[in-house]
Design a protein that fits this description.
heterodimer; A: about 120 residues; 4-stranded antiparallel beta sheet; B: mainly beta; 6-stranded mixed beta sheet
């Protein structure tokens, strides 16, 4: 158990809908990362937050957004869903945001299926 | 930009065989290098890491050495077990201000009894 929790574990929804994925980092970790894992694209970095502020953006679509709250949990919002958004979405956390090795610890993921 | 190239899978070995999974990278500066493992239906677990050239990361019998001259971080294990069957990902995090991971495509390992 990494200490990172993600809810829900599975989500099935229809095209055009909006969903929210939730992540709670390990105790003491200030940085949260979101990744998408799909068969065609592999594991891709989406976005990073550090202590409530956006720190880095990767291949995140404009239809997707995220935020980190004062209690450090994070939510990833996916809107106007398309079939191609079906994937496993992982959250990871680390102590800091830059410098040193700061290894990331991953949650169990949320499997999103868009029908 | 950063990239990681991993040995194509799947790899099938018999129990107690020697394992090598090749990984090479392209990055600016001095990245940290990682191996993650993903068991069926689970998230990614950090297997080992190395933060500078010539560092050797090791854990659970697995080893990898950070080779800056060949930009490689190959994963090895002397004697694999059935329980090692999983997908292995090589990854790097850059030395810049953001520490997001860039992953290889993953290598599926199956160990037969």
């Amino acid at each position: 158990d990494s200490g990172v929790t993600q809810t829900p574990k599975h989500l099935i929804t229809a095209t055009g809908q909006r969903v929210t994925l939730r992540c709670s980092p390990r105790s003491g970790d200030l940085s949260v990362y979101w990744y998408q894992q799909s068969l065609d694209q592999g594991l891709q970095f989406l976005i990073q937050y550090y202590n409530g502020e956006e720190r880095a953006k990767g291949n995140i679509l404009e239809r997707f957004s995220a935020q980190q709250f004062p209690d450090l949990h994070s939510e990833l919002n996916l809107s106007s869903l398309e079939l191609g958004d079906s994937a496993l979405y992982f959250c990871a956390s680390s102590v800091g945001a830059s410098g040193g090795s700061y290894e990331q610890y991953f949650g169990p993921g949320t499997r999103l299926t868009v029908t | 930009g950063n990239s990681v190239t991993q040995m194509e899978g799947p790899v099938t070995l018999s129990e107690e065989a020697f394992l090598t999974i090749n990984c090479t990278y392209t990055a600016t500066g001095y990245p940290s290098l990682f191996w993650y493992v993903q068991y069926p239906g689970e998230g990614l677990q950090l297997l080992l890491k190395a933060t500078k050239a010539d560092d050797k990361g090791s854990n659970k019998g697995f080893e990898a050495t950070y080779r800056k001259e060949t930009t490689s971080f190959h994963l090895e294990k002397g004697s694999v077990q059935v329980s090692d069957s999983a997908v292995y990902f090589c990854a790097l995090s850059s030395s810049g201000s953001a520490r997001q991971l860039t992953f290889g495509s993953g290598t599926q390992l199956t160990v037969l009894p």
